[in-house]
Amino acid sequence: MTPIDLLTTCDVGGCSAKLPAAGLARALEGLTATPHPNLLVGTETHDDAGVFRISDEVALIQTTDFFTPVCSDPYEFGQIAAANALSDVYAMGGEVLTTMNIVGFPATVPLEVLRTMLQGGIDKVKEAGGVMLGGHTIVDDVPKYGLAVTGTVHPERIITNAAAMPGDVLLLTKPLGAGVIMAGHRIGEVEEAPCRKVLESMKQLNRAAVPVMQQHHVRCATDITGFGLAGHAVKMASASGVTLKINIEALPVFPGTYKLLEMGCIPGACFRNREFTDPETAYPETISYEQKMLLNDAQTSGGLLICCKPDVAETMRAQLHAAGYPETAVVGEVVQESGYGLVIG
């Protein structure tokens, strides 16, 4: 294959390429899904996917996600973009059924690069137990790749971002700092080993967390992607009518993240996310600037933020460790609505 570094084709990649949450909220204001008795999850709560009941036993989960390159290698980019899109189904408690490719590709880049990128996506869909049906491509100056995904879930076992209850404990399954580490890699400040750790995390499916959540009757979760932990926590709090309290010291963090933040290696998405989250977040006086930026760092194919009952929190944490998420941590709790969506302690 003709060598190519995909990072040379774009200025911003992965979920950092999302539109700013604050502006997006304004643009979507007043737009609602078509009313239907079988529409179980629509657009009102800004959840990870839509859910439509097709029988008493089966509901369809539908989502789509795509973005610009987050890494240099086309095959790994395909894997990460696919894992990120598939994650929405897992956040809703479902299993992947079918997928379709979404591609924008430059006319100046050899098509063998496209083939390699698509193979990465296909292999990740196979790992998920899904079936690739095809897709659609257009010519675009900057490569873009992702999936439209259909999954299934029992209508009574849907997990949403709108079911957090006071007293719930918060679990986070993957470390934070992926956006910062990849930005540091772009400017030559991150060596291969820490970069590789982030890449492997982004390629990891959230699939193995689903049976653990379903076993313990979890009904509220979300995956942490482009709006950062703070942004997705604020959305969960708003949808559920509660406040989330997060312990900044309990958060799992990729090694080297704080060092890069202290150097000033701060992706632009951090500032855009803070515009959205700051009005809804109560910070302690002792929190550092770098910690605020970590909370707002855009993650690509990040972990799940899970609400569970206190009596199963440690059991779930141990099971999630055993399922392949060894950095899963108890990071906070859900409390009565306090005037803020998110309180940092």
Description:
There is one protein chain. The chain has about 350 residues and is an alpha+beta fold. The protein folds into two domains: about 5-155, 60s Ribosomal Protein L30, Chain: A (2-Layer Sandwich); about 170-345, Alpha-Beta Complex (Phosphoribosyl-aminoimidazole Synthetase, Chain A, domain 2), CATH 3.90.650.10. The protein is built from eleven helices and 13 strands. The protein has helices at about 20-30, 75-90, 110-125, 180-185, 190-205, 210-215, 230-240, 255-265, 270-275, 290-295, 315-320, and strands at about 40, 50-55, 60-65, 95-105, 130-140, 145-155, 170, 220-225, 240-245, 280, 305-310, 330-335, 340-345. The strands form two sheets. A seven-stranded mixed sheet has the order 8-11-7-12-9-13-10, with helices on both faces. Strands 1-2-3-6-4-5 form a six-stranded mixed sheet, with helices on one face. Helix 8 (about 255-265) packs across helix 10 (about 290-295). The model has no long low-confidence stretch (mean pLDDT about 95).
